[in-house]
Amino acid sequence: MKTRWYICLALLYPSVCFSQSNPSSLCKVWCPTSLSGAVKLGGQYRYEKGITNTIYNYQKSPLLYGGILLNSSSYFYHPNFLKVDLTAEYNPEKRQDIYLVVPDQSEVKTVQRLNINTTLFNQRQLVIGTYANFNESYTNRENLTNLKVNSTNWGTNLVYANEVLPVNVSYQQGFTKETEMQSDRVFNTRQCNFLGSANKSFSARDNNQLSYSHNTFSRLDYNQFEIRNASDIINLNNSLYFDERRNYSFNSNISVTRQKGNDTYNSMQANENLTLKLPENLIAGSNYGFYSIDRELQNLKQNNVNLFLRHHFYQSLFTEATYEYGKVDQSIYKEVNKKAGFDLRYEKNIPTGHLSLSYSISRLNQYRKSASVLIQIINEAYTLTDGQIRLLNKPNIVPGSVVVKDITGTIIYQEFFDYTLIDRNNFIEIQRIPGGQIANNSTVYIDYVANQPGSYQYDSDFQRFNASIMLFDQLVEVYYRWSKQDYFNLETSDYQTLNYFTQNIVGSRLEYKFASAGVEYEDYASNIIPYRLLRYFVLLQGNYSSRLLFSLNGNLRNYTMIDDQVNQLYSDLSGDIAYMFTPQTKLNFEVGYRKQVGSGIDLDLLTFRSEFTANYRQLYFRVGVEMYRRFYLNEKVNFIGANFEIIRKFDWNRKK
């Protein structure tokens, strides 16, 4: 890493040289244009105490960090010949964790990085860019381990812009080495990517793009077998317009992948779309999708056809008829889906308000031929929202097989700390636990194993009706929603659970200037998870003299779980107040309270946060405090923390 810092100093030297009254001859050839950066100093103190499973513990964590950042821009001979951008950063920090019942820990962490970007022949038809990024971090954890991580990635990009065939070619290579200093265990990861693409339009009515990429990935962990995969991907995108107004268009996307290594497979995907704007306000369209993947002992081929016809009558009546056909041939099952539907929507301005009506109906025929087997579901996405019921898609999930992760797959959330699972007949409900690592309204990815039903066939009808009236310039809204799902002509086997339900929702909302409030009642009659819900909500938000900004949001959800004969109450209140003394000085308060009462969900959570920020010219200052108190089942936690940060920025530009 020392050699890289010597490069950094060599590239920064011209900036110092240029500031002299008589620049050296080097500066006449290598001309700096700007030098900017920042120096920062910050700290944090956290204190947490609580009781978990009758065990009392506390944690004190002081943290001190600093850093320096430098950005330099220069050019060689001429700004459009060779331009060089350099970023260098150094960030040390020290943290200590003091516990009552477990050994204390002291951690020293150092992060340094150096990024170099060059652009050759800027603003020309042929532009060549290169970059190199060097990162190093060192973590010393007392009583645990010392961890050193070095990562390097570099690449180049070539753009040839011309009227005949614009071409873009790039190559990237990255390497990461993690070393545990005390045990000498090493973990290596290497990635390479080559990408080439070309664009061509033969007329004003078409656009075509062809791209090819070659990717390699390898991972070698200590005392483990190396994981290595190499893939080749070809993509072809085409857009074609049959008339000057583009009323008739065709879009195509075809992708082919060939991968070899630990995970060897061949796949092909195609998506073809045709859209026709017809007379009498008619729009017709069709879509064909094809997907196939072949792996050892497993293959899948899927065909989908979608057709639609839409009609727009004046500005008030919208109608649409649809038909969908899908066929799946998989190693262990075959499935055919046929679905026809009709949608109608009516919008009308009435005296002092607006009327909206909509109705949709669809019929689905599903046929599946298979043996009853266990299937592995991987990376199924779910958005978890407080106070809303979320069931996992498949019934009959094997107990203990559920794994909940973040989008990267590197963070594995823990049951009873980050989320909880509740049995709902043959399904499983998942709820996040406030105060855990899963944020409200965030998406998680879930793996699990479920019993796959054998051969079955059924028809399903689904209907939905919505009606709403807004009066007095949206001051008052009254709405009603109804939906129903029914099944018939059933030929089922074991492990097949169908959701028969009828849902009725009626509500009202008032909105005036900075305030809105409402009430909603829902009756969900289902054979899986029947419930009744009464919900109240209020929202206040506005500003005073453009200096004081405020918002207050309150919700109360009272569920009556019919099968269990229990109530589940979710209530939360949150508020924000921000006051601007000057455009550069601001004080902010955030407070939140959540109360949950019910079987396995009892929670009392209070959070508070305040932050003061200010800046004067190039000096930035921030200081804040935060706290929370959480009582959840047999756990009690109290936390308080404080933090500060000072940043001094500087910016120098070469005078023209």
Would you write up a description of this structure?
There is one protein chain. The chain is mainly beta. Among the domains are: 32 residues, no CATH class; 111 residues. 3% of the residues lie in helices and 73% in strands. It has a 28-stranded antiparallel barrel. A 3-stranded antiparallel beta sheet has the order 18-22-19, with no helix packed on it. A hairpin with a 3-residue loop joins strand 12 and strand 13. The longest helix is centred in the first third of the chain and has 17 residues. It is globular, with a radius of gyration of 31 Å. The two termini are 36 Å apart.
Notable characteristics:
disordered N terminus; 3-stranded antiparallel sheet; 33 strands
Summarize the structure.
It is built from two helices and 33 strands.
Fraction of residues in H or I helices:
under 10%
Q: Regions with pLDDT < 50 over 5+ consecutive residues?
A: 3-7, 13-27
Mean pLDDT: 87
Query: First CA to last CA: what distance?
Result: 36 Å
How many strands?
33
Structural class comes to mainly beta
State the helix count: 2
Name the beta content range.
Answer: over 45%
Question: Rg, please?
Answer: 31 Å
Secondary structure topology:
Elements: H1 2-18, H2 25-29, E1 30-52, E2 55-76, E3 82-99, E4 105-120, E5 126-141, E6 146-160, E7 167-180, E8 185-200, E9 206-220, E10 227-241, E11 248-261, E12 265-278, E13 282-295, E14 298-313, E15 317-330, E16 333-350, E17 353-370, E18 373-384, E19 403-405, E20 419-424, E21 427-432, E22 442-452, E23 456-471, E24 476-491, E25 501-512, E26 515-526, E27 531-544, E28 548-561, E29 566-582, E30 585-597, E31 603-616, E32 619-632, E33 635-653
Antiparallel strand pairs: 1-2, 1-33, 2-3, 3-4, 4-5, 5-6, 6-7, 7-8, 8-9, 9-10, 10-11, 11-12, 12-13, 13-14, 14-15, 15-16, 16-17, 17-23, 18-22, 19-22, 20-21, 23-24, 24-25, 25-26, 26-27, 27-28, 28-29, 29-30, 30-31, 31-32, 32-33
